[in-house]
Amino acid sequence: MKKVLLLLFLSVFLTKTYAQDYFPINESVQNKNKNYTVFTNATIYVTPTQKIEKGTLLIQDGKVVAVGNNIAIPKNSIAIDLAGKTIYPSFIDIYTSFGIQKPKNNSGGARDPLYDTKRVGYYWNESIRPEVNSYETFKYDQPKAEELLKAGFGVVGTHIPDGVAQGTGILVALNNTENSKQIIGNKVTNHFAFTRSVLTNQAYPSSLMGMMALLRQMYLDLDWYKKGNSETKDLSLEALANNEKLVQIFATEDKLNSLRAAKIAKEFGLNYVLKGSGNEFERIDEIKNTNAKFIIPISFPEAYDVSNPYLSNQIELTDMRFWNQAPTNLKVLSDNGVVFALTTDKLKKTEDFKPNLLKAIKYGFDKTKALEALTTIPAAILGKSNEVGSLKTGSYANFVITSGEIFDEKTVLYENWVQGTKYVVNDINAKDIRGNYDLTVGKETYKWKIDGTAEAPKSEITTADTKKVNNTFAVSKNCISLLIKPSDSIKSNFTRLTGFIEKPENLSGKAVLSNGEELIWTALKTSAFVAVKDSSKVEKPNPIIPTTYPNVAFGDSKKLTAQTILFKNATVWTNEKEGILTESDVLIKNGKISAIGKNLSDASAIVVDAKGKHITSGIIDEHSHIAISRGVNESGHNSTAEVTIQDVVNSEDINIYRDLAGGVTISQLLHGSANPIGGRSAIVKWKWGSAPEEMLYKNQPKFIKFALGENVKQANWGIDNPTRFPQTRMGVEQVFTDYFQRAKEYDESWKKFNSGSKKGKAPRVDLELQTLAEIINKERFITCHSYVESEILMLMNVTEKFNFRVNTFTHILEGYKVADKMKEHGVGASTFSDWWAYKFEVNDAIPFNGPIMHNEGLVVAYNSDDAEMSRRLNQEAAKAVKYGNISEEDAWKFVTLNPAKLLHIDDKVGSLKIGKDADVVLWSDNPLSIYAKVEKTIIEGVTYFDIEKDAEKQSSITKERSLLIGQMLQEKNKGMSTQQPAKKEKKEYHCDTLEQ
Description:
By secondary structure, the chain is of the alpha/beta class.
């Protein structure tokens, strides 16, 4: 008993709070502890791979003094025997918002946007906030600290998660007593994310591509600013420069966003640590190739409650599959050599951390790798390996004491020491009182069974006639508290028992009856506790659904490769001078059209009997908005030439597969029509299963989207107080004139600087004006959203003043009125077949528009501008025959060769010609027929759609859903938490779609 009290006294003495050395001392006696604490006979993990049996750990002043087997123990040491116990370094979470108040939305509502900044002396965009320092608003959160301490954490990194450039983060020790030691580093990390600041109503950026463009401009401005070119001081750029040597952490929150952030890093020679989302396994090859270090959450989704078959039909296969596969993410990352730390971020409760980690281990994640991801790796990422993450001499005395192997389900975490300060999680000196007792309280006798675990015992009390008695039981620091409740819940005649455990065989203490009478109670052990052997089988993990490319419905089990294919006896639509050939063969080899003719042969080829079928070049959709991530419009400014769709191609969009099923092989993904000057486009080949960068058309011509009409003047935006210039059609003309003049002057300033041996102050690189200068220099081509003839003429006049031409008018529904002027200008037309009267400025549209422009000699294409229509463009082409009496061959060119010409890629695609890319479609019938079906869609020799394999995939999807539903029903039957099914409304982008 004396020994216990001595240890209690010493632990209180050791954990006393001290101020800084130079603080005034207002105590009567100076009382500074210089004693050592020594832990002996423990299994000690100095690092995840350095283990000491029966070792000794010596600490003083919150630091490790020595660790090993033969440690000289100073005389002024307090010894703690940890025989049978294990010591590990405390965990580190470098990505939290611990102690940070969540920024509140002060923007005043999205219906009243701000286009210019209100801040003075800072960067022009209010989502760029590198000057924000989290230590300035940090407030230690003790309740949250205790949650983290119980989970084994000793150090956390924290920051203010707001904006694109979010400012600096701090490193905090979870030391609940010595406040002055809590902040280990006040500027350790520098944070970024693809998120707008909630503190501003500034409209820009409104899209993901806008955020990427903003980051590029920020880094270009930083370089320009550091070279002394600016005449004014910018506190944001000053802070950004000062923070360059800090650890740069980028919160991507998605596998594709990780690739996007890595792209920015590569462009500017940066080294981002990427905070991921848990779906990295779905693009593991690309993730690995970033060569970045990651911070990975282990917040796994709950199973869906699929007991209602009608509601379960609403669940996307992708979501069901992710539930099944998510626990494998850590194993996949580790097996592929990706270096990562773990974080509690996104967990609903901190206490879910260990169960989730154990689940990942159950699914194959190595335990040593797990310990590294919580200790040495985060320490190394922060450059703090000498201070935290291990128990090497000189590091902080941050460690946990456990009953055994830390990642065993039954292991108990007793204590978490941070900077030499003890935090008790479970009483290490708790006596095991489990067993069966005869309990006597005055004249009442009971049978008392205590089971559960030694650290968390459970109580069951019965009367002499075996009736259960309600009770509440707790043990803390060897003190017993027992409340015996009456069987009648209305009555309040409780009996309260307390006592201190000295001998587990004979318990006793004081009882207070409901009338206030005090008695002595006793409990004599009649039999020892016998653990019931778990006879149940070890629960096996759910069988894992194999990852597909992409990892969505209709994905392929492996990445597809090119084949040598010989089509025999088909009707071949060449789109060349040979016209339409009958009973002809087409040989595809090495991704190219190798031969066209009769009686072809190739011993290495897969032979396809195409008799009675038709072969064409792939359909090209000149105007599409599918497969774009987080915004088709960057509507924050009236000119956004700096943004590019190439940054935000979404390779997982099911519309890609649907397009392939409709024979589409190439699309131009255009910015929307929210601005007079929109963003740059992306020409893509729909290589289903490939990464976004692999889908981009190689060495593609440069295009940009312009727009005229209602959309650009905010006539239909639903804004209470539209203020963005322009608000009229004549204002639109002025925007073009102004920006082209500015771009011309910008281009001249750079030419002058470069011709003068680059002496003096360099002009600022402006991505927006740089792009517009490319148009003036005929290096980039305009595709312009247009309807009304007056505006069509206006833009042609403006461009002619600056000595270049519009490349394509898209929509162009009044093109038939000015076809002669368009031909004189040299512009092409990409129109709808028969859309009209869907808004006022379309009232004069007619279905004869395309044929009239074609007959005038213009290059005319039909486009979709719609996810549904894009897979039926063959039928749209047929309407040119119906309405305009165009020949079938010319009508087919409306969706193949003509859009290729408009996109300046007809030298490679758009027709079947020897040497061109093997972008080929096999049709069951005349492609202009409503009965025609696509049987194969091939891009560069790779078959991305096959109608027979499609049927197999549909059958496989049905079986997979059934399997996953069965697994989820088992989860519910086992009592696991589930989530309710919810239908996800997929957002399909159109020209006028704005991000909310």
